[in-house]
Write the structure tokens for this entry.
Amino acid sequence: MPQRIPKHLSRRHSAETRALAIEPAHVQWFVNQVEAWYKEQGRSFPWRKPGMSLYQLLIIELLLQRTRAETVNRFHAGFFLHYPDWNSLARANRMDLEAALKPFGLYRRRAKVFQILASAVVGTGGELPRSVEDLGALPGLGPYMVNAVLMYRDGAPVPLLDGGVARVLERFFGPRELVDIRDDPYLHCLEERILELSKEPSEINWGIIDISALICMKNITHCHLCVLSKKCPNNRYGLS
Ligand code: SF4
């Protein structure tokens, strides 16, 4: 009797097949457009240039998850003046830490999460673990943050897939399979293909992030300004 494939596996398979069926030239066009646009018009932030420690980059990425990049840019230097490393964060007075985090919002929750994470890192010698599994086991680090560490530290070709990035990909390439993007096989397979074709992993990630923040927003789409408009099925302004 033929064995039945579990439903979730068959769904995964069909989602990956859908992502793999997209013409390589179409994916390459997307990559070329985003990379060229990013070089000309991408946002310039200190954390996108050399010079910051991995500690600072990780804290900034955690802040960026719920706070606008412009706000993080405005206040991050002051925060790092008081808390320059994992040790100072782990030893911080909670009320002082909350006050320092107030400009970013969600300060109580963030103070708690940051201190738990800092204590865990200090407890293992002050260095972030090398392996993906050990990084993912640190408190407060989900798949996005693990990938951020791999990208900044190792230059690894890994995606930074958040809600905004997913929106751009779905509008250009078609809808996801699952509600939760962290588990979505279509978006993950698509991101793998994009990263494979990109010359610079960080720039393609930041390029898509910037398009999602500046042009292809949740409720407003500036399709007339978008480098993807020529081939985007959701271009609201017709072919440019
Ligand atoms: S053309 Fe419009 S809908 Fe398509 S990716 Fe650009 S801004 Fe978004």
Notes: The domain at 7-45+164-231 is CATH 1.10.1670.10 (Endonuclease Iii, domain 2). The chain has a mean pLDDT of 93. Residues 24-41 form the longest helix (18 residues).
